[in-house]
Amino acid sequence: MQSIRPSSVKAATAASMSWRSCWAETVDGPEPAVRLRAGDMVIFPAGDANIIASAPGMRGAPDAAQYYRPVDRLLPFALTAGRDAAADRCRFVCGFLGCDTQPFNPLLEALPRIVRAPVSEASWQWVARLLDAAVDTAGQGSAGQEAMLTKLAELMFVEALRGHLERLPPDAHNWVAGLRDP
Q: Could you give the 3-state DSSP secondary structure of residue 43?
C-alpha cells in the first residue's frame, strides 16, 4: 500500500482569458489544441507541460527561466511574450493549484488532460473582478497577498470544474458526471 506523502503534489495549471483568443495544448500529448476565447478557463489537471499560443502547433525558443517567480518579487508577476506587433494580443492570468495525489486522486484522474471551461456570464462578473484585483496588486507586497492568490486559484479551479460539468452530455455516467448530483 502506498503511503500519503507531502511530496506527492501535482499542479493543476489554469489560465483565464480576459480578451481576444488563443490556443492551449499539451507539449507532448496526443490531444488536439483547444481554442480559448474571452471568458474561458483552461485546466491541465495532470500538470502537463503546456503551451498557450496564437495558433495551434506554434513553438518558440523556450526560455524556462522567464517563467520562474523572480526572487525579489511576490506573486503575481507580469510576463510579456511574443512581441510581434501584427499578432493578435490577449491577456490571461495563469496560476496553479497543488494537491496531494497519493495514494490516488480520482477527480484529477477522471478529467481529460485539457479541460476548457467557459465561464458563465454571471460568474464572469465576479471572476473578472478577482483577477483584476490580483493583477492590480502585483508587486505591492500587500499583507496576505499570496494567501489571497491561493484562494483565488482554488476558486478558479472550482469555477472551471463547474463549467466543465455543465458541458457534459446529460447521459454521461462517470465519476466526474456524478459531481452534478446535488
A: strand
Rounded to whole angstroms, the Cα distance separating 130 from 140 reads: 16
pLDDT digits (tens, 9 = 90+) for 122-176: 888 888 887 777 777 666 667 777 777 777 778 888 888 888 888 888 888 877 8
Q: How far apart are CA 137 and CA 76, in angstroms?
A: 8
Dist. CA 141–CA 146, nearest whole Å: 9
pLDDT in tens, 2-16: 333 344 455 555 666
Determine the longest span between alpha carbons in the chain, in angstroms. 56
E-assigned strands of 9-162? 9-19, 21-26, 34-37, 40-44, 50-53, 91-100, 115-118
For the chain, list the domains and their CATH numbers: 9-56+84-180 (2.60.120.280)
Q: Are 29 and 1 in contact (CB under 8 A)?
A: no
For 47, left (φ over 0), alpha (ψ -120 to 50), or beta? left
